């Protein structure tokens, strides 16, 4: 699979707008401003395929990207803090929940967590919900370039313990340096039909 052969497919604001489920889908979930867009851009070796912003709440729809006519990447709106109205946030939550619960072509949810911080309740709840739902998930700890040796190892170990996972079950990632990019590409390519 060629991760450099990627194109924007569509933005989905309502379940009825979802594209035909012709390829396996990998969804990217995480708190607002955790680096989802930067991670996806690095993954596909593009600077601005996915819009990035320092302002939480930039992604307001399910954004579908076609990778090499083999796989869809789906950028989900961030959860947690975002300067949007309660009505907008409620609408996102309903859309995301229905998508995660009902989409048969969804094969994995990449759960993106900022390694610089302790585990947030939203992240713990999402992983617990995915685990209980039987959905495959992959924790990816972003911004690994921001910490050095011991601090990086300590924070990763604390997140692993909080999620009750082994180090082999997650990826350390840096959109800046590319750390973890090949490992993530390889894992995602394994879902190709």
Number of strands: 7
* CATH homologous superfamily caption: P-loop containing nucleotide triphosphate hydrolases
Global morphology:
globular
Span between termini? 11 Å
- Broad CATH class: Alpha Beta
Mean pLDDT: 89
Order of helices and strands: EEHEEHEHEHEH
In terms of quaternary structure, the protein is single chain
User: Helix/strand-derived class?
Assistant: alpha/beta
Do you know the CATH architecture?
Answer: 3-Layer(aba) Sandwich
Question: How would you write the strand order of the largest sheet?
Answer: 1-3-4-2-5-6-7
- Please name the CATH topology: Rossmann fold
The helix content, as a percent range, equals 25-40%
- As a percent range, the share of strand residues is 15-25%
* Main pleated sheet: 7 strands, mixed
Helices and strands, with pairings:
Blueprint: E1 6-12, E2 25-30, H1 36-43, E3 62-67, E4 71-75, H2 86-102, E5 106-114, H3 121-133, E6 137-142, H4 149-163, E7 171-172, H5 181-189
Characterise the protein shown here.
The chain has 193 residues and is α/β, with parallel strands linked by helices. It has a single domain (6-189), classed as 3-Layer(aba) Sandwich (Rossmann fold). 32% of the residues lie in helices and 21% in strands. It has helices at 36-43, 86-102, 121-133, 149-163, 181-189; strands spanning 6-12, 25-30, 62-67, 71-75, 106-114, 137-142, 171-172. The protein has a 7-stranded mixed β-sheet, with helices on both faces. It is globular and about 45 Å long.
């Amino acid at each position: 699979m060629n991760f450099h052969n990627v194109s924007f497919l569509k933005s989905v604001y309502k379940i009825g707008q979802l594209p035909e489920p012709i390829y396996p889908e990998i969804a990217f979930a995480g708190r607002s401003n955790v680096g989802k867009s930067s991670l996806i851009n690095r993954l596909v070796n593009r600077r601005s395929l996915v819009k990035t912003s320092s302002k939480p709440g930039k992604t307001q729809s399910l954004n579908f990207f076609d990778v090499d006519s083999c796989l869809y990447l789906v950028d989900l709106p961030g959860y947690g803090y975002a300067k949007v109205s309660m009505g907008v946030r409620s609408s996102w939550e309903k859309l995301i929940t229905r998508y995660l619960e009902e989409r048969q072509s969804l094969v994995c949810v990449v759960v993106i967590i900022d390694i610089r911080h302790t585990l947030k309740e939203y992240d713990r709840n999402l992983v617990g919900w995915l685990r209980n739902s039987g959905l495959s998930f992959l924790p990816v700890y972003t911004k690994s370039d921001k910490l050095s040796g011991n601090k990086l190892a300590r924070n990763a170990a604390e997140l692993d313990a909080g999620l009750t996972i082994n180090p082999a079950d997650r990826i350390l990632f840096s959109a800046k340096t590319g750390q973890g990019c090949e490992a993530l590409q390889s894992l995602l390519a394994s879902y190709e039909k």
